[in-house]
Prior knowledge:
The protein is of the alpha/beta class. It contains 13 helices and 18 strands. One of its GO terms (molecular function) is alcohol-forming very long-chain fatty acyl-CoA reductase activity.
Amino acid sequence: MATILFTGATGTVGSVLAPLLKKEGHRIVYLVRPKNGQKAEERISLKEDVIWQGDITLTDCGVNISQRNQWKGKIGKIVNCAASIKFKESLSEEISKVNVSGVKNLLHLAEDLGIPEFHQVSTAYVAGDSSYFTEDDFDKGQTYRNVYERTKKEAEHLVRTWKQGSSSIYRLAIMVGDSETGYISFFDGYYAFESALWHLKQGLLAKGEQELEKYRKEGVFFDSDGILTLPIYLKLSSISTLNIVPVDWVGRTLAKLIDVPSINQVFHIVHSRPSRIRWINDVSMRHLGIKGFYYGDSADYSSRFLLGKLQRIFDRAIAQYNPYITHECQFQVVNAPQALLGDYEWLPDIDEAFLAKILKYAKSVDFGKKGQELKAVKV
């Protein structure tokens, strides 16, 4: 078993992956940055493991020289799950500092400590606007839809050209809840779209009868079962898929691949048979209690002020995700099944029962906002 320097242990991937690696007998050295007044040791409650307070955006990742000298030659792998998943171009400097400079600093730390393997968690969406992307593909002249995709591609370049050791790069699809419990620690990607509609519904539920009557006149109303008719337009492609994968499957697959010696390969950690995005949304809306929506571009709302307001609120909420609901690349899946042979776990098709499970959990924690004041969108 290896000693692994692990980053991003508090994130969606890391919080699932690190316990699995530990369960398999690996020794974990956690690199954790302080946050919101909490020290690293307070953010990771695993007293039997080694915790370094540091920050990948700093020189030497903020690891002091005595720690570096103590551990030189004693760590076999780095697993980097740390990343900024923000999309806004206005935050490009901050995002690049984590996703690009952070990887550069980790690679330098690996050289300093004599760590021979670097395992980088990336995204399948380095494919940008490509139609098809193999695990050997890297730069096909694709256009990147946001700063996140661009910086993750730049990070891959750093890892691919690293000469002081070997690497494995894992390109992940869109993660959703645990296949058994529905649990997930962060609600972005798929959830951001459904959350926007859910919170529109909550905002309407908070209104009085007189106000709801005004909405009814514009076609927005609740039936006797509490189902909301919401005749806004959703710009979902009629042919695109949405590649969603359960977070527990991602964790298990990564844990197995990290045990495989790195030989400078890329692995697509994606669903081999992704479902159509409109089907996923149709099922999701049934379980959120919303109907009456349309697919296509927004209509003329000049005579329906309130409905137009709802449309604008929704459009603003999901604007950064528009590239993912109108086009999705298809991804080759070859290297992981070949590396793991019979130990590779092929995902079953996404079905309604699974979507119901992950949405039940999401609703139970108000899409990650439970414990705060219920966020009912002002409409």
